[in-house]
Amino acid sequence: MSMQERIIKRYPNRRLYDTTTSRYITLDEVKTLVLTQVKFKIVDSRSHDDLTTYVLLQIISEQENKQFPLFTTSVLENIIRFYGNPLQKTFSQLLEKLSSEFLEENMLKDCLEKKPLDVLVELTKHNLDFWQTRFSSYVTQKDEGNVKKDEK
Predict the structure, then answer these.
(1) 84-110: per-residue pLDDT in tens?
(2) CB half-sphere exposure, 101, CA atoms < 13 A
(3) What is the longest distance spanned by two Cα atoms in the chain?
(4) Could you read off the pLDDT of 38-77 as tens digits, one per residue?
(5) 23, 52, 72, 128: which is deepest, by most CB within 10 A?
(6) From residue 18, how far is each of 22, 24, 33, 60, 61 by CA, in Å?
């Protein structure tokens, strides 16, 4: 039997109500749900609109105001530039894949146990392999197209 998605209602006063535990929860508790990989969805109590992304962005925003932010101003500016760009979906998929792989391969744990330069070298190699794999078929198709044109 698969576990159902937990529903959290967000009320107009911005309070969050966990329907599973029948109590109000804080953003810190939502963060704990994320960290413990509990599946949940946050919905507006009136319209039932999905507010999960909005609330997760609130949590990120609070984290970014702390001592060591994850996103630099430059990174945030670049993310904003992707909105409306034809590559927006590809960029989103890339971010999702990289962050998932980073966590799945215990790279986070490895980062804490290794020298920062070693971690940087490994991440660079990993990213290079990813991009080579991602675009090798594109380059091959393009080269084959040029060969066909030359043969004519």
Answers:
(1) 988 888 888 888 888 887 776 666 666
(2) 11
(3) 72
(4) 999 999 999 999 999 999 999 999 888 887 788 888 888 9
(5) 52
(6) 6, 6, 11, 20, 22
Q: What residues contact 82, with CB distance under 8 A and at least 6 apart?
A: 88, 91, 92
Give SS3 for 68. coil
Domain ranges of the chain: 1-70, 105-152
Give the CA-trace dihedral at 133, 135, 141, 143, to 10 degrees: -100
Tokens of 105: 């391969």
How is residue 101 written in tokens?
A: 């792989």
- Gap between the terminal Cα atoms of the chain: 60
Cβ pair 27, 21 in contact under 8 A: no
41 phi/psi in degrees, rounded to 5: -140, 135
> pLDDT value at position 31?
94
Q: What is the pTM of this model?
A: 0.65
